[in-house]
Amino acid sequence: MFISHIRADVATDKSPWGNFWFAPVGYRTSAGARVTPASAMTLPDVLACVRVLAESFAIMPFELYKPKVGGGRTKERNHWLYKLIEKAPNRFQSPYEWRMMLAGHLALRGNAFCQISANSRGEILELLPLHPDRMSIEPLDNGSYRYRYVDQSGQTIYYSRHDIWHLRGLSDDGYMGLSLITLARDAIGEGLSMQSYSTKFFANDAKPGGGWIEYPGTFASKEVKQQFRDSWQDMQGGSNRGKVAVLERGMKFHELGLTNKDSQFIEGRQAKTTEIARIFRVPPHKIGDLTKATFSNIEQQSIEFWTDTMLPWARQWEYSLCFNLLGPDSDLEPDFDHKPMMRGDGNARAQRISALVNAGVMLRNEGREEEGYDPIDGLDEPLMPLNMTVVNDDGSDPNSAGSSGTPNRTPQKNPPPADDDQQQSDASARLARVVRGNAERMARRLVAGKPVPAALLADALGITEEQAAVWKPDPSDTEEQLTIALLSLGDVS
Questions:
Q1: Could you say which DSSP state residue 6 is in?
Q2: pLDDT digit string (tens) for 105-157?
Q3: Among 56, 108, 111, 251, fewest CB within 10 Å belongs to which?
Q4: Which position has the higher pLDDT, 326 or 120?
């Protein structure tokens, strides 16, 4: 006799390697169905909700950031956590498969477990998923707890808290997350019972009970009546279904039809779809129910799915990564970004990027990167509208007299006419103010540690690139000293 491993992943496989002996018994609901995570997945509505949650989370881009002094943050792609989450969580699974599996465990059972494999430096090398149905928690006398796991061979393995990464959903005791399948077992069991009734109904040629036979006489005994009924069932059931029946002794066959109550059964199943979607907090249109979707609200519903459903999932993972894997002393910030899935159509994305770039919020190369284009030299400078400016700390205009030594730029009303010499003098003064403003801007960049290309410096000061290339700033100079040095390049005081 051979024992096969092929169907070891099926819940009904009773071989020593199967999941039958480890799967939870489940709960018998009022509708008569026994509900377990495996049986709940046979209901299309539950399967669709779990797939939407798991697959949507698996495609969210992951980044690891390190805050910079003074604001902003940089990407840390050489850290072990980034490599685990985005490159290879273990030797068996891709990041997509691993994330989808853990998200499915969370959606169905409220818990997800991974065994931590680390090196001597404390760097985590692998996160190996463990099946939640085989895991339990045992409190210890010292107030802590440990994990008890039964593997496929029936062996019990104990893990300390530091050996397991535990993702838990909503919990009422702080140890184990609550299973949505268990909490909503009656609603799901009702759906399973309706599905079972539907399959039996259509297996019977969509007839409620076949019919009944009218017999004008009387059977000799109860045994003769039962014998006739059994012979009728054999003659009209199985492979004989649909064959012509021959009745004797004045018998008549009356076929049962659908009542209005039977016809409303499909409406009940439709209502059950909405109820299951509500349990998993998934918009009905994401699982194929478009009864409440219109052209005017479908886009907003899609946005709400990412902000109201997937954002809490992302935050749950991010906080768990910080608390359990990085530790509270780490300043790194994990981020599952859902914004790329909310970009909208081409016109909406173009309008958004154009508005952010023109306002100076986004760099032009950042907009190109968001759309998947390569960066271009010279597009790393923020743009500023000409009709706007910055203010000093005290709220004064930096271009007004008394703040930077330059005359007030506020135009006079009805200025008097000027001769040619006066116009030339005003033009020279305006040019000097422009060059000085450019010099101050270049000085601020240099003090902030940002390099200034020679071409940009030449355009700002009106000098040649050769002059700009040979000039080297003194790292110890202040912003004012650098401004004076830059003005001397353009012979502007």
A1: T
A2: 999 999 999 999 998 888 899 999 999 999 999 999 888 999 999 988 889 99
A3: 251
A4: 326
Tell me how crowded residue 15 is: count the other CB atoms within 10 A of its CB: 15
Structure tokens at 184: 């909503």
Phi, psi of 395 (to 5 degrees): 90, 0
124-130: strand order across its sheet: 124-130, 111-118, 164-168
**Tokens 């005290």 map to which residue?**
394
Residue 260: pLDDT over 50: no
Query: Which H helix or E strand runs over 128?
Result: strand 124-130
What is the per-residue burial (b if ≥16 Cβ within 10 Å, else e) of 406-430?
beeeeeeeeeeeeeeeeeeeeeeee
Tokens of 196: 């079972």
Q: To which residue do tokens 């390697």 refer?
A: 17
The string of pLDDT tens digits covering residues 405-453 is 444 544 545 555 556 666 677 677 777 787 888 888 888 888 877 888 8
Contacts of 204 (CB under 8 A, 6+ apart): 210
DSSP class of residue 171 equals B
- The one-letter code for the residue type at 426 is D
Query: Where do we find the tokens 């790329």?
Result: 340
| 71 in Cβ contact with 127 (< 8 Å) | no
Distance separating alpha carbons of residues 467 and 490, to the nearest angstrom: 10
User: Coil, helix or strand for 211?
Assistant: strand
At 53 the pLDDT is 95
Whether the Cβ atoms of residue 265 and residue 250 lie closer than 8 Å to each other = no
- Pairing type for strands 27-28 and 111-118 reads unpaired
Q: Indicate the length of the chain as a whole number.
A: 493
d(CA 211, CA 200): 16
C-alpha–C-alpha distance, residues 15 and 434, integer Å: 84
Higher pLDDT, 132 or 236: 132
CA dihedral 276, 279, 284, 287 (to 10 degrees): -60
3-state class of 166 per DSSP? strand
- Helix (H), strand (E), coil (C) string for 13-72: CCCCCCCCCCCCCCEECCCCCEECHHHHCCCHHHHHHHHHHHHHHHCCCEEEEEECCCCC
The side-by-side arrangement of strands in the sheet containing 73-75 is 73-75, 62-67, 333-336
In one-letter notation, the amino acid at residue 207 is K
